[in-house]
């Protein structure tokens, strides 16, 4: 087993244990010596992992540590690069730029052999021309994160415009359009809004009264969508 794989296994093991786990127990489960374990813990701490504890007391990994990209396998890197390229092609300008920046950050910290794998990725995404969007979709994404109401002007199938207050739930990426699932206060029900038909969007300084996770679960049940089918 390579050292990178061993460090990854140690991180995964610590993530599974919310309570402190002793050094000997960790070493036994990983099949390494206690001396190697202490050295690996010191390495992870130096890389930014918030591992708390000491010999004789046990160790616990605090939430928030991001896995170093150098620990990704070639298949994992290809999946990340493909996903980022898909977002760059299908997402709005801000989301696309974020995807490109993410790949650049991953590439910058990779060993030479893995960096070559990123540069020579064998999977690609064709160019895409969807329906033009008049608004800044990042405003919707920000409202989703904050569980914040939005006021939108929407054009329906017949071209008629209405102003609505909605509780945004999630954005779905379909073949040629983005669709926003939301609770509509005007209709007092769940509705789907094509993002390219939203003429204006304005955040309202008001959170919606129910948690987004609860609303999404209810919406999925209404649509007969399994809970495991995406986010």
Automatic annotation (TrEMBL):
SUPFAM superfamilies: Winged helix' DNA-binding domain (SSF46785). It comes from the Bacteria. Gene3D superfamilies: Winged helix-like DNA-binding domain superfamily/Winged helix DNA-binding domain. Transmembrane segments: none annotated. Residues 6-59 form the Helix-turn-helix type domain. Residues 139-203 form the WYL domain. Coiled coil: none annotated. This is YafY family protein. It comes from Archangium lansingense. The lineage of its organism: Bacteria, Pseudomonadati, Myxococcota, Myxococcia, Myxococcales.
């Amino acid at each position: 087993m390579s050292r990178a794989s061993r460090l990854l296994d140690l991180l995964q093991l610590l993530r599974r244990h919310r309570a402190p786990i002793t050094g000997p127990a960790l070493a036994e489960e990983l099949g390494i010596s206690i001396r190697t374990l202490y050295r690996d813990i010191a390495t992870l701490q130096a890389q930014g992992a918030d591992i708390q504890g000491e010999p004789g007391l046990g160790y616990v990994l605090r939430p928030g540590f991001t896995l170093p990209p150098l620990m990704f396998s070639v298949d994992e890197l290809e999946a990340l690069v493909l996903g980022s390229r898909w977002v760059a092609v299908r997402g709005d300008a801000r989301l696309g730029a974020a995807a490109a920046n993410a790949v650049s950050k991953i590439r910058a910290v990779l060993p030479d052999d893995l960096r070559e794998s990123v540069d020579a990725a064998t999977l690609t995404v064709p160019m895409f021309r969807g329906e033009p969007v008049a608004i800044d979709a990042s405003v919707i994404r920000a409202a989703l994160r904050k569980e914040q109401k939005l006021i939108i002007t929407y054009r329906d199938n017949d071209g008629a415009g209405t102003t609505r207050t909605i509780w945004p739930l999630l954005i779905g990426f379909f073949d040629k359009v983005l669709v926003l699932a939301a609770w509509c206060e005007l209709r007092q029900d769940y509705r789907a809004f094509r993002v390219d038909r939203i003429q204006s969007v304005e955040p309202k300084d008001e959170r919606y009264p129910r948690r987004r996770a609860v609303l999404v679960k209810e919406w999925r049940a209404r649509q007969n969508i399994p809970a495991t089918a995406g986010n």
